[in-house]
Amino acid sequence: MAEPHAVELNATDAAATLALGARLARALRGVRPHDALVVHLRGELGVGKTTLVRGVLRELGVAGTIRSPTFSLLETYDFDGRVAAHLDLYRLSGDDIEDLGVRDLLTPGNVLFVERP
Asked: Which structural domain range is residue 88 located in?
């Protein structure tokens, strides 16, 4: 797996967060990494983590409801023959994470958005 890189992104409101997500999606479009891309989302409840992911997924062509994984723990979406997964690991530990099947999602080209990694 490639070395991790940290980038801090800030937006002032929901519209700016959606726009930031769309910009991120355009950077991701057409890129098929040799590994899955894992994006860590950090922040308190209500700061816009799901809004950012919604902006990315809308730009990638995902239609329908895009839900927060706070209660479901994992939401998946298909785009361009790839999978985007949105996870919330707040209440989970190692074995619980394994039971979600996260390892199966770590395939080349997939994108995982992980809240509270």
From this structure: 35-115
State the CB neighbour count (10 A cutoff) for residue 64: 7
For Cα atoms 108, 111, 117, give the angle at the middle one, nearest 5 degrees.
115
Rounded to two decimals, the pTM is 0.85
| Average pLDDT for runs of 10 along the chain of length 117 | 66 92 84 78 86 95 92 91 90 76 88 87
Give the total number of structural domains in the chain.
1
In a domain, 1, yes or no: no
Cα within 13 Å of Cα(83), Cβ side: 15
Residue 63: CB atoms within 10 A of its CB come to 8
Domain-embedded: residue 47: yes
